[in-house]
Each structure stands twice: as C-alpha cells, then as structure tokens.
Design a protein that fits this description.
The protein has one domain. The two termini are 13 Å apart. A two-stranded antiparallel sheet has the order 1-2. By secondary structure, it is mainly alpha-helical. It is elongated. It has 4 helices and 2 strands, in the order H-E-H-H-E-H. The longest helix is centred in the middle third of the chain and has 32 residues. Helix 1 packs antiparallel against helix 4. Keywords: Membrane, Transmembrane, Transmembrane helix.
Length: 149
C-alpha cells in the first residue's frame, strides 16, 4: 500500500468513527431539546474538539508505529515510546479545543438557539471533518518521523 493510500484510508476511517461518535454524543446531550442554546454549543465545542483531536492524533500515531514494528512499514520511529504520542495528542487536542472554543464563541455571541436537527448534522459533520484532518496530519507526522520517504 502506498503512503498516500495509507493516509487516505486512515483519514476516512477517522472521519467515520469521529462522525458517528460525535452524532451519538450530540444526540445524548441535545436530543431532548427542540432548540439548542448557542451557549450550550459554545460550552460543548472545546469538549468535542478535544476528544476528537486527542483520539485522532493518538490512535493513528500508535497504529503507524505498530505497523513499523510488525514490518508493515519500514522506519525508525517504532522505537519511540507511547508517552511521546500521548504528549503530542494532548498538545494537539488542547490547541484545537481552544481554537474551536474561540470560533464557536464568535459564531454564537448573540446567544441565538439552533434547531436540534441542524445541531446534530453540524456536530456530525464537524466531528467527521476534524477527525479526518487531524488523522491525516497525525499519520503524516508519524511517517515523517520514521524516516520513510
């Protein structure tokens, strides 16, 4: 499998998993309300963003390293510890979470509510897009640090 195919596959998997989980959590949190307050979305944005970015950074990094250890990919980063991946995932998640909070605070500064259906769709698409982007970057970084060209 080519490296670009690996990145694309992992990004697609990240999008599906994070989209489904985002939809499920949004339904649990907001499913009972017909209209979701903007303040609730602002409060939820960093939580969702942190969770998606953390998992979308940590899991693909560890999977690429595992593939290197098992011979599926050749490279040197397989010897790195999982702790380094956890620290990276925490830093990425914190940065993404802060950015998402800021954007959501600007978008919903007027406090207007949004229809539950629109929120569920938006949260699902946001989780999928964020998961795909962060996963693709995490896989690229893991590949680059391994020395694979």
């Amino acid at each position: 499998m080519s490296l670009s195919a690996l990145i694309a596959r992992e990004a697609a998997v990240g999008a599906v998993i994070n989209g489904v989980l985002s939809a499920a959590f949004a339904f649990v949190l907001f499913g009972g309300a017909r209209v979701v307050a903007g303040a609730a979305l602002v409060a939820d944005a960093p939580v969702q963003s942190f969770a998606v970015a953390f998992v979308a950074t940590l899991v693909p990094t560890l999977l690429v390293r595992q593939r290197m250890r098992c011979g599926g990919l050749s490279g040197e980063a397989a010897t790195r510890t999982a702790g380094h991946a956890v620290v990276r995932a925490l830093l990425v998640a914190a940065a993404v979470s802060l950015g998402a909070w800021g954007v959501q605070a600007l978008l919903f500064a007027d406090g207007a509510g949004i229809d539950r259906g629109a929120v569920l769709i938006g949260k699902t698409l946001y989780g999928a897009a964020l998961g795909a982007i962060v996963t693709a970057v995490a896989v690229k970084v893991a590949i680059c640090e391994s020395g694979i060209q």
